[in-house]
Each structure stands twice: as structure tokens, then as C-alpha cells.
Amino acid sequence: MENLNTTVNGTHPQNCYSPSHLSASKIGQTFACCLFLAVSLVGNTLIAIIIYKTKTMRITTNYFILNMAMSDLLQPIIVFPSKIIELYGGLWFFTGEHGQFFCKMVLLIQYVSCLVSIGSLVLIAVDRFGAVVFPFRRPLFGSKLCPFFILTTWVAAIALSSATFYKSVEYTGKFNCEWVWQYTFLADSYLRAIPFVFMTVSFALIVILYSLILFKLKSQKTPGEQSVNAEIQRERSQRNVLRMAVAIVTGFVVCWGPSNIIALLTVFVWDNTNGLSCEIANYWVIALFMAYANCAVNPIICFAFSGKYRQGLKGLLRCH
Questions:
Q1: Burial of 212 (0-12, 13-18, 19+ CB in 10 A)
Q2: What is the distance between the alpha carbons of residues 102 and 108, in angstroms, rounded to a whole number?
Q3: CA distance 286 to 44
Q4: CB within 8 Å of 126: residues ≥ 6 apart
Q5: Dihedral angle, C-alpha 304, 307, 310, 315, nearest 10 °
Q6: d(Cα 166, Cα 79) in Å, to the nearest integer?
Q7: Which of 51, 117, 132, 240 has its CA 20 to 30 A from that of 298?
Q8: CA-to-CA distance for 38 and 61, rounded, in angstroms?
Q9: Which residues in the chain come in under a pLDDT of 70?
Q10: Of 126, 79, 122, 84, the residue nearest 103 (C-alpha)
Q11: pLDDT at res. 66
Q12: According to the model, what pLDDT value does residue 9 have?
């Protein structure tokens, strides 16, 4: 996964690139990692601080966005630094069995980050559905249930990703982690199918919920004169939150979709018995970095689509 020149079943690496191409690729990947690291670390941290310091922001939707921000922070804290170390053959902090464990943890974190984000998006859709379609009923996620569902996303993600510890990746002793391409159910089919299947089922539910929300907003009757201003303000707030939620979902699909599709194709469609082709390797590195970009895209979407987040950011800047 991380070393694009590694072929299937432990055969010798393919020499797909010239030295100049490899140098340019290394520079490009380094720049992308540093950019995503900086934007994700700063952006997601600001999201957390704004929600913590602004009482009006402490609603269930923002708590689920905060949950996504915390999962996104796993990438700049652990994944990106290890990626940069691998690119330049730097010194690992762990060796031997500890290096093996660390390699598996890096892969596990990538799976968990993806699955927690998907779970959070489903919870946001369900929360918005209850707020718009049933505005006068008790919220689906109250203050007591919200932490439980957030914890559930992490427990489920870790449980579904635990198969990464079954010989899916190994420490080679050469400052990097490499996939062990074994044709077994766990190492190939399951590990590559689970994010795609989980994403497909979840987004089918999300599309249905948001379709019902849009239908409800369009079919709402005009309120009486006494409550017209309050109703218009409430609808405007609901639409703004909905617009931001849809943008986050769209960004997630655009970022994570290609890597999941290519991962499935490498297992179930393409013939990899003689190693990954150079063309597939080129597509894979692009798809991989698109997935990496998602942790930096989410905070940008929040600040771009939500006036409340922008106001919270201005408040933080004024305080300092």
C-alpha cells in the first residue's frame, strides 16, 4: 500500500520509474503530506476549540462533526509523519517486533479513521432527518445518547478493522511497511471490501435520508404572519446546516471513493499474479493521496459553509 514498487506475493520490485520521475514523485508526495498535515492539524484543532468554547455550537450535529475531526487528527499525528519517514528512508523509532506492531497500527489507524468518519456522517444524516422532518418531537440523539453513539462509531470501526493484524502488512527492516499480498479471505477480500461495503450501505442510507429532508423542506407550508419571521429563520438555519452536511458527505465520497474502488479492482478484477502494473501504481498513488486529503478538506468545508464556525474563528483570533 505504501510502497508502490512492491509486487504481489513477495516477488521482486518492478522498476516503473526513471530516477528523475522518482525524485519528482518524492518531492510531490512530501509536499502533499506536509500540506495535508498542516491544514488538518490546524483546521481540526480549531474545530474542536470552537465547539468547546462556544456554548451555542454544542449541538448534536457539531458533536458528530467533532467526532470526525478527532478521527481526522489521527492522520497528521501518526500516518503522515511515518509516510515522510518512509519516503526518505529515515530512522524508525521502532525495530523488530515493535516495528511490526507499529506498521500494523498505522494501517489500522487508516481504516479506523475512514470508518469513524462514515459512521459520523450517518449519525449527522439521522440527526438532521429528525430535526427537519420531526421538528417538534424530542431529538433522536439527546445529551445522554450522543456520547454513546460516538463511542459506538469507534468501537465498531476498531472491531471491523482488527483484521489488519492478520499478516496484512509487515515491517521489512528497511525503514518502511509493506503489504503482504496473500490470497486469503482476510488479507485480500475482507480488508479491501469492508470499507467499500460499509461506505456503500451507509451512503445509500444517507441519500435516502437527505432526499426525505429536501422533500420535507420543499413541501412545508407557509406559516402564519405571527410566526413567519421565526419560521423563516429556523428554515434558513436548517438549510445552512444541511448544506454543510451535504458538502462534507460529497467531499468524503470524492476523496475516499477512488481508493476503495481501486482496492477492490486489484483483488476481484485485475490480474495481479505477476505484480501491479505501472499504470495501476500511478492510479493508486493518486487515489491514496486523495484519501489522505479528506482530513484537510473537512475543516475547510466547515469554515466555508458555516457562518457560525467563521464567527467562532474570528472570536478566537480576537482573543489572541
A1: middle
A2: 10
A3: 23
A4: 140, 141, 209
A5: 180
A6: 20
A7: 132
A8: 25
A9: 1-22, 89-99, 166-193, 220-237, 266-277, 319-320
A10: 79
A11: 94
A12: 33
C-alpha cell read off for 196: 467499500
Task: Write the burial class of residue 10 (CB in 10 Å: 0-12 exposed, 13-18 middle, 19+ buried).
Answer: exposed
Please tell me the number of Cα atoms within 13 Å of 297 on its side-chain side: 20
Q: Fill in the amino acid letter for 267.
A: V
| H helix runs in the chain, sequence order | 19-53, 60-72, 74, 80-87, 96-133, 145-161, 191-219, 228-268, 278-305, 307-319
Q: Are 152 and 116 in contact (CB under 8 A)?
A: no
Phi and psi for 178 in degrees, rounded to 5? -130, 145
β pairing state of 177-179 and 169-171: antiparallel
Looking at the DSSP bridge assignments, the partners of residue 178 are: 170
Cell of 195: 470499507
Residue type at 284 in one-letter notation: W
Domain definitions of the chain by residue range: 18-217+226-319
Distances (CA, A) of 135 to 209, 213, 218, 259: 15, 11, 15, 38
Helix (H, G, I), strand (E, B) or coil at 4: coil
pTM flag (> 0.85): no
**Residue carrying the nine cell digits 504481489:** 8
Query: Per the structure block, which three cell numbers stand in for 277?
Result: 502494473
Which three cell numbers, joined as nine digits, stand for 53? Answer: 468554547
Query: Could you confirm whether domain 18-217+226-319 is CATH 1.20.1070.10?
Result: yes
Cα separation, 120 vs 154, whole angstroms: 10
* Secondary structure element (H or E) that encloses residue 169, with its range: strand 169-171
